[in-house]
Design brief:
The chain has helices at about 5-15, 25-50, 65-75, 80, 100-105, 110-120, 285-300; strands spanning about 15-20, 125, 130-135, 170-175, 185-190, 200-205, 205-210, 220, 230, 235-240, 250-255, 270-275. It is an alpha+beta fold. It has a single domain, classed as q2cbj1_9rhob like domain (Jelly Rolls). The strands form 3 sheets. Strands 1, 2, 3, 4, 9, 11 and 12 form a 7-stranded antiparallel beta sheet that branches. Strands 8-5-10 form a 3-stranded antiparallel beta sheet, with no helix packed on it. The protein is globular. Bound molecules: 2-oxoglutaric acid and fe (ii) ion. Fe (ii) ion (FE2) binds near residues 155 and 237.
C-alpha cells in the first residue's frame, strides 16, 4: 500500500498540507541523525572551550541541554554550524555548515521519497533550500539581535525563492526530530491559503514575512518525532516561540520534479530518484558534502547573489 493515501492527497489539495503520524521510526530513522549532530556539537563545544568562550565542554549533558548551555554561556547562537545549507549573505571560505552522511541518508530516505512521489512524480530532485532548525528555549537564548532562531514569521516557502520557481511544484517536507508541541514552538498553518497565490513579503528582523498577515484562522499543528508534514509551496505558515524548557529540532526538506527551477540556482541540489536515468541518482554522501563545499568556496570569492524577489526598501513594507 502506498504510504500516501487518496485521503491524504485530498486533504493536501483542500488544505495545502497533510500530516502523516508515526511515519518515521524514532530509533531507526531519527536517532542516527541526532547521534551525528551530537558529534558536531562536541566539536563546537571543544572549539569554544579552546577559544575560552565557554568554561566547560558539558560532555555529559544530552544534546539539547548541552547546546542550550553552549549558546547561553558563549553568548552566541551557532545555527549555521549545524545547517546543511549556506547563509544568504556573508559566505566566506570558513563559513561552517554540516552536510554529513546521516543527514544525507535522511534526505534520501526511501519512505520519504516514496511519499514525495505522490506529490511531485517519480523523477525526484532534492531541492537545495532545506534546513535543520534547532530552537532552544527562548528564555535561555542569548540576545544577539538575530531573532530567526526564536520564531519563523508568517511566510510562504515560494516567497523566499526567486520567481523562477513560481510555476513549479516544490514540496516541503517538515519533520520534527524531537517533539514539537505548542510550547516547544510547533508550526502554525493557514488551511487553504495555498489557493490564493503568492502574497507580498517584507523583511523583518527574523526573516521574510508576509505583509499585513491576518492570522485569525491559523491552526497550530503540534507534532511528535516521527510524524511528517507535507506542505504546498504556497501554504502560509510560521512557527511559535519555544516557551518550554526543551529544545525543538526539525528538518525542512524539499523535493520537486527533476529539471524544474529550484528557485535558488546558486545552491546545489541532486537527483534523489530517477527511474528514467538511475545512473544520475546521487548515492554518495561525500559527493553531496563536496558540492556544498565547492559552492561555499565559489560564493566566498563573489558578490552575494540575489536570493529572492523582494526589495528591502519597498514602500509597501514601510
Ligand atoms: O521550523 C520552523 O520553525 C519553520 C520552518 C519553515 O518555515 C519551513 O519548513 O518551511
Ligand atoms: Fe517555511
Amino acid at each position: 500500500m502506498p504510504s500516501i493515501t487518496q485521503d491524504h492527497l485530498i486533504q493536501y489539495e483542500n488544505d495545502g498540507f497533510v500530516i502523516v503520524e508515526n511515519f518515521l521510526d524514532t530509533d531507526e530513522d531519527i536517532q542516527p541523525v541526532i547521534d551525528e549532530y551530537t558529534q558536531v556539537l562536541d566539536q563546537l563545544a571543544n572549539q569554544l572551550y579552546a577559544d575560552r568562550k565557554i568554561s566547560n565542554v558539558y560532555a555529559n549533558l544530552p544534546f539539547g541541554e548541552r547546546l542550550t548551555k553552549v549558546y547561553a554561556e558563549s553568548g552566541e547562537v551557532y545555527s549555521q554550524y549545524f545547517d546543511f545549507s549556506l547563509p544568504q549573505n556573508g559566505v566566506d571560505a570558513d563559513t561552517p555548515f554540516w552536510a554529513g552522511p546521516a543527514v544525507f541518508h535522511m534526505l534520501r530516505h526511501q519512505k520519504l521519497l516514496d511519499a514525495a512521489e505522490s506529490f511531485v512524480g517519480n523523477e525526484i530532485y532534492s531541492n537545495p533550500v532545506q534546513h535543520i532548525r534547532i530552537k532552544p528555549p527562548e528564555h535561555a537564548l542569548p540576545q544577539t539581535g538575530d531573532n530567526r532562531v526564536i520564531q519563523t514569521p508568517w511566510h510562504q516557502d515560494n516567497g523566499v525563492l526567486l520567481s523562477e520557481a513560481d510555476d513549479g511544484n516544490i514540496l516541503t517536507v517538515w519533520l520534527p526530530l524531537t517533539n514539537a508541541t505548542i510550547e516547544q514552538g510547533c508550526l502554525q498553518v493557514l488551511p487553504g491559503s495555498h489557493k490564493s497565490g503568492l502574497m507580498h513579503h517584507c523583511y523583518q528582523d527574523n526573516g521574510l514575512a508576509i505583509h499585513n498577515f491576518d492570522e485569525k484562522d491559523a491552526l497550530s499543528i503540534p507534532m511528535q518525532a516521527g510524524d511528517v508534514l507535507f506542505m504546498h509551496q504556497l501554504t502560509c505558515h510560521n512557527s511559535l516561540p519555544n516557551v518550554s524548557n526543551a529544545v525543538r529540532i526539525s528538518f525542512d526538506l524539499r523535493y520537486q520534479a527533476i529539471g524544474e527551477p529550484t528557485g535558488r540556482p546558486v545552491f546545489p541540489g541532486f537527483v534523489a530518484r530517477s527511474k528514467k536515468d538511475p545512473e544520475s541518482e546521487l548515492h554518495d554522501a561525500a559527493i553531496w558534502e563536496r558540492l556544498w563545499r565547492d559552492t561555499r568556496d565559489k560564493l566566498a570569492k563573489e558578490e552575494n547573489p540575489t536570493f529572492n524577489r523582494w526589495n528591502v526598501t519597498d514602500p509597501v513594507c514601510a
